[in-house]
Structures are given as structure tokens and as C-alpha cells.
Amino acid sequence: MTALLNNLDRLATGDHDALLRCCAVEAEALAEMIKEIPALDPKPAQAFEAGIAQPVVPDVFVRPTPDGGWRVKLNSETLPRALGDREYYAEVSRAVRTDVEREYLAERLSPATWLVKSLDQRARTVLKVSHEIVRQQRGFLVHGVQQLRPLVLRDIADAIEMHENTVSRVVNNKYMATPRGIVELRYLFSAGLSSSTGGDAVSAEAVRERVKRLIEQEDPARPLSDAQLADLLRLAGIDIARRTVAEYRELLRIPSSMSRRQLKKQAAFSA
After folding, report:
1. To 5 degrees, how large is the angle CA 166–CA 205–CA 213?
2. Cα 156 to Cα 125: distance, rounded to the nearest angstrom
3. What CATH number does the domain containing 234 carry?
4. Is residue 54 part of a domain?
5. Which residues of 116-129 are buried (b: 16+ CB within 10 A; e: fewer)?
């Protein structure tokens, strides 16, 4: 077993003949040893670590309405709160005797009022941006990631007549609770790939989801190459190059067709 663990690279490439020589065992014994590998823990010390998982708290809630629309609401628990105590201000103002005291109160009131108004404006901006994102990504909310449309910050900025930098600050580190789960607002922005049939562009995120599904549905004995995946996507009207498919597959942490074929052989050998 020690010899096997020292030669995991050969196990990864499916070189069982070399493993038989290294381990000095029969094929049946090697198969039993390989079956034990998935049960081993590569990071055993993690069992003694008591880390606390921090859940994601959504900043915006999106829910369908009976009339087919969408209700967008801010999460009041995540909003910073600041209130000006007008009663206390009025009480202190009545005791003012000099111009210096009156000027001092005005200087204190001005930034407090500005802060309250700024926080209110910030909340309104987040809500306005969220409403427009929901309007433009309705397909995603109804059908899922396969209907995620190409969207950039400029599209939202132009639609609500705000600066692109303002929209960027609003969506940064913000999360939205949708019928499709809690998603980061930036997840709903994606570059587009042109259609080979002249139709609407398709978002890169939706294409990655298609790549994942095609690989999940492939014949394990004949895994699809990147070139074959590109051909299938082009048949579906998506203009994409083989190298782009390879990039998306690697982002999804899916092995190449050759590696997937080797994994299939290893599984058959272990069985």
C-alpha cells in the first residue's frame, strides 16, 4: 500500500502494469488496494478543526407575484441605520443663547442630516439597480442558468440613467435571494457569445452550463472531446471555438476527454 501511495501519479494515468511491478502484488490484490483509496482522507487534520461556516445573507429578496411579475425587496437587516434625534435637537436649540452656540449646533446637524440622506439614497439605488437586473434577467429567474442573458454594467447604467461606476459599487459584494437560490449580483452579469444563426447572443455562463450538461450526458465509454463539444454547441446555434470550450471545461474543473476515459478504465478495473 505504501508503494501504491507513492505512485499515485501512475494510478491517475491508469498505468496498472507499472503499479503491479512497483507494488509486487497480483492484479486481484492491486484492485483491492485501489478500492481503498477513495476511503482515505488526504487532509485528516481537518477533522479536528472547528471552523464556523458563515452563511451568506442576501441583501435583496426577489419573489414571484400572482400576476406573473416580481416583487423586489431590500433586506432591512443588512441596511445600515442612522437616525437624527430631532426632539433632542429642538430641546438643545431652545437653550441656545449666542451666535457661536447656534453655529455649533448647525455644524453638528449638517453632517448628521447628510449621512441619513446618503444612506436612504444608497438603499434606493440598490433597489433601483436590483429592479432593472430582475427585469433584464427574467429568463434566468423563470428557467434557470440556461436562460441567463448577456448583461454588462453599462446595460444597467444606461437603463436607469446612472453612471457605470455607481452600478459597479452597488452590485459589489451584494447577494440576491431568488427562486433559483442565493446568487451574487455580479453572477447575473456575463459576457455574450454571438449566435451562429444570427439570433440573440448567449451568455458565457449559460454556455458553461451547456458544456457541463453535455459532458454529464455523454457516453462514458466515448467521452466527448473539446472539438466535439464545440461542434455540438455550434449545431445549437452558439458560435464558439474549441479553445474556448477547453477554457470553460477547465473553469468547471472537468478533466479532459482523455482523463475521463482513463477514469472510466480505472473504475472498471477496480470493479
Report:
1. 160
2. 12
3. 1.10.10.60
4. no
5. eeeeeeeeebbebb
List pLDDT tens digits, range 122-169. 999 999 999 999 999 999 999 888 888 899 999 999 999 999 999 999
Yes or no: say if 170 and 53 are a contact pair by the CB < 8 Å rule: no
| Distance in angstroms (rounded) separating the CA atoms of residues 82 and 80 | 7
Q: What is the pLDDT of residue 267?
A: 66
Q: Is 237 left (phi over 0), alpha (psi -120 to 50) or beta?
A: left
Give the range of the structural domain holding residue 198, as residue numbers without chain letter: 192-270
End residue of a domain, out of 136, 154, 188 = 188
Query: pLDDT tens for residues 100-129?
Result: 888 888 888 888 888 888 889 999 999 999
Q: Is residue 55 part of a domain?
A: no
